[in-house]
Amino acid sequence: MQLYNKLSAKEREALLEEAGEERLTLSFYKYAKIGNPHLFRNHLFVTWHEQDVLGRIYVAHEGINAQLSVPAKRFKEFKEFLDGINFLKDVRLNIAIEQDLKSFLKLKVKVRDKIVADGLNDETFDVTNKGVHVDAVAFNELIEDPDVVLVDMRNHYESEIGHFKNAITPDVDTFRDSLDIIEEDLRDHKEDKKLVMYCTGGIRCEKASAYYKHKGFKNVFQLEGGIIEYARQVENLGLENKFLGKNFVFDHRRGERITNDIISHCHQCGEPCDTHTNCANQACHLLFIQCEKCAVAMENCCSDDCIEIIHLPEEEQKRRRQGIPNSNKIFKKGRSEKLKFKK
Ligand SMILES: [Zn+2]
Ligand SMILES: [Zn+2]
């Protein structure tokens, strides 16, 4: 029985190109008590590997968070498998608007402490005591209410390229930081204001809403299915779209265009731009916004220092990388003093 990947990303890319079959990029999450995450993880891997499903999945005692690419022709089989797991029966699947054959090149199912890294002690509150879920129609109406405080529960690099009109977008690096900042800002309005939250797919708000209720907020709402589901409903139902720009996503597309507004700037020249990239220097890997002109001029790097490094022989680069975590693991994702136009 195969429990881990054997193909490299390159081999997988070639296979996908060759097959040329239609795939669906989708995501789902569910908070649920999972007794043995390792056993569950293996069950998922074996089945999805057989179904040619790719993606990044986290399993924890508190639930599952999955981002996947599923062959369209095996979707029914995939769905039946999910429905056969009692807590995943009829789970809402967020299907991406822009489809990309190569959104994921591997199947990685990982067991983690939490499905959302939140630094919270969940024993102290009930995660399932969540806020009121609202769909796109109700959300559009609700956010016009003068008593509403609309909060973007994502990090700075996500809300920078797209967010709802009039939303508060905390300048934070982590979910944990935003929880504290919002609570502090709204401490005198726990009863008179309506707290309305949104995030990418709903997973963060679901926990945040339970947390804020526990902290004494009386009126807590969350956008069901997050920006992904909102965009889908807006399109299907012909609703007014109150989002601006791009929805940051965590696969290699980096962002999904929701409207044509470009609300951010190239971090190097200041021109309007909302394309995220990672610095070409492997040891840096900084996530930042770079326009096409700067990408050429800067050789896809974030700084002159990094350009210098990518011109060193590979061996020398490797030697220098030893023991240095890249920005995936650095706390201050997307921030660098070298980026002139990053606020
Ligand atoms: Zn630029
Ligand atoms: Zn760099």
TrEMBL record:
EC number assigned by the record: 1.14.-.-
GO MF terms held by the record: oxidoreductase activity, acting on paired donors, with incorporation or reduction of molecular oxygen
Protein name: tRNA uridine(34) hydroxylase
Key words of the record: Oxidoreductase, tRNA processing
Keyword Oxidoreductase found: yes
Catalytic activity entry: uridine(34) in tRNA + AH2 + O2 = 5-hydroxyuridine(34) in tRNA + A + H2O
Entry similarity comment: Belongs to the TrhO family.
Keyword Oxidoreductase recorded: yes
Function: Catalyzes oxygen-dependent 5-hydroxyuridine (ho5U) modification at position 34 in tRNAs, the first step in 5-carboxymethoxyuridine (cmo5U) biosynthesis. May be part of an alternate pathway, which is able to bypass cmo5U biogenesis in a subset of tRNAs under aerobic conditions.
Top-rank taxon: Bacteria
Record GO biological process: tRNA modification
PANTHER family given in the database record: TRNA URIDINE(34) HYDROXYLASE, UPF0176 PROTEIN YCEA
Top enzyme class: oxidoreductase
Classification via InterPro entries: Rhodanese-like_dom, Rhodanese-like_dom_sf, Rhodanese_C, TrhO, TRHO_N
Domain Rhodanese: 144-239
Source organism of this protein record: Aequorivita xiaoshiensis
